[in-house]
Specification:
It is a single chain. The protein is mainly alpha-helical and 316 residues long. The protein contains 14 helices and no strands.
């Protein structure tokens, strides 16, 4: 006879407090944001050293402040996002185990973490680097939390709005050095070219994720694919179209007026574009979740390759 199991005696293990904080602030996503800012900061340093003043050297202390401030602002943004969506997160499989929906973290703790990270991160960027970097960090936090997050339930235009804070890291990385060097509050065309690069990348990247998670997103009422019908030919066509547009936009930093990237970077950018273009085309042909997944992973590869290629051209 099978022994009856007393479920009251079963210990249900939940993540540690540290694990909950890392999940709440989306540690991996925040690290990717810091990576973009870090790489473009290095690129800016070597760009100015190579083209204007060979006495310029890399200040690792500033790099550390940029990384810390960027991480804190991103963590704060992610925290506010989860506070606003705490009830919606309960409805989706991919988010139902987050600390707030499960009750492992109180709302009071969530507010404290988010406010601390957001405020301290902005202050670090403002005072340890320069005011323009702090303003950009704060603008990213507000646009992501206050505009993008509520808009996700109302319109697919949320993806367009979210692309602005999503594209801010390379802009912040460049401005963190350039504005400190020049002492101005002006964003240069070179910095904007890097912003445009990541801005266009956001669309195929995020829509690939939205395609994979479409059914889950529907449970929370999120409208994120470009077509109102969801996973249809119209959505797939726009994903392909934006992927095509992304490639020439990514070449903007290689334009002679900016000269951040040269022939090596241009070749790598074009070759990397094929990494995303092929799965985007196959998604258009098949409307298959498999190719949306491949496009998503291709987008993870594309952006670091492009940013590292631009840095390479300044180093060698």
């Amino acid at each position: 006879m099978a022994k009856e199991i007393n479920t009251d005696q079963i210990e249900i293990k939940t993540p540690s407090t540290l694990g909950d904080i890392l999940m709440f602030t989306k540690m991996r996503l925040a690290s990717l944001v810091v990576f973009s800012a870090f790489i473009t900061y290095l690129t800016a340093v070597y760009f100015y050293s190579r083209n204007y003043d060979p006495t310029i050297v890399l200040n690792w202390g500033k790099v550390a402040w940029l990384s810390l401030g960027g991480f804190l602002v991103t963590a704060g943004s992610n925290g506010f996002n989860q506070i606003i969506e705490k009830d919606l997160d309960k409805l989706m499989s991919r988010t139902s185990n987050r600390p707030l929906p499960t009750g492992r973290m109180t709302l009071r703790t969530a507010w404290f973490i988010s406010l601390f990270c957001g405020i301290s991160g902005t202050l670090v960027l403002w005072f340890m680097l320069n005011p323009l970097t702090g303003i950009l960090g704060l603008a990213s936090l507000i646009s992501y939390s206050v505009i993008y997050t509520p808009l996700k339930q109302k319109s697919s235009w949320a993806v367009f709005v979210g692309a602005f804070p999503g594209a801010a890291p390379p802009l912040i990385g460049w401005v963190a050095f350039e504005a400190s060097l020049t002492g101005t509050m002006v964003i240069s065309p070179a910095a904007l070219s890097l912003f445009c690069l990541q801005f266009m990348w956001q669309f195929p990247h995020f829509w690939a994720i939205a395609w994979r998670c479409h059914d889950d997103y529907k449970k929370a009422g999120f409208h994120l694919l470009p077509s109102s019908e969801g996973k249809d030919l119209k959505s797939a066509f726009q994903i392909l179209l934006y992927t095509i547009f992304m490639i020439p936009i990514s070449l903007l930093p290689c334009h002679p007026d900016f000269n951040i990237g040269e022939i090596t970077a241009a070749i790598i950018i074009l070759a990397s574009g094929g990494i995303m273009l092929y799965p985007a085309f196959m998604l258009f042909r098949t409307l298959s979740d498999k190719w949306a997944t491949k496009l998503m992973f291709a987008s993870f590869i594309y952006l670091p390759l492009v940013l590292l290629a631009l840095l390479y051209d300044q180093l060698f």
